[in-house]
Amino acid sequence: MVIDFCAGAGGKTLALAAMMASTGRLYACDVSERRLDNLGPRLARSGASNVQTMRIESEHDKRLDKFIGKADRVLVDAPCSGLGTLKRNPDLKWRQSPASVKELVEKQKSILSAASRLVRPGGRLVYATCSVLAEENERIADAFLEANTEWSVVPSSLRSPEAGESRFAQLLPHRDECDGFFAAVFERQDR
Description:
The protein is 32% helix and 24% strand. It is of the alpha/beta class.
């Protein structure tokens, strides 16, 4: 069982469905009905038969309780400042402020915490953003690990000469010639 916790219009969901070859169960959750509606036609064209969409009120929606401790994988592509995409979206710098980033950080922490409850022992949780800000990335991941001792980091397999080895995956526009992205993979320990 895989849960795309912040599915949006489902691009990642479709990629996951293809990787799963329509086996298992894949849930695409999001707070936006409009975005999930956009997934419908794309899902039909893909031929994926293992995806179920689920609009949730928030990360704390009680309907998610049926998944507590059952998911093999949960992907959290968290809402973020998007500052890793400045090259393509230069107007973002005018739409973000320290206050808006602070608000996003609180939301990211809440979403990550709520999503972590769904992962079974031995399962994995992926936290990702398209931000380059440490407060949205490493600091969130480190705070999560500090507050949740039953989780460990799966070191990133992403390696670049400039980045060296890292616990987390980080792509930077000036170094990697792409948008800025961050990902942390956590594994829930068997207890």
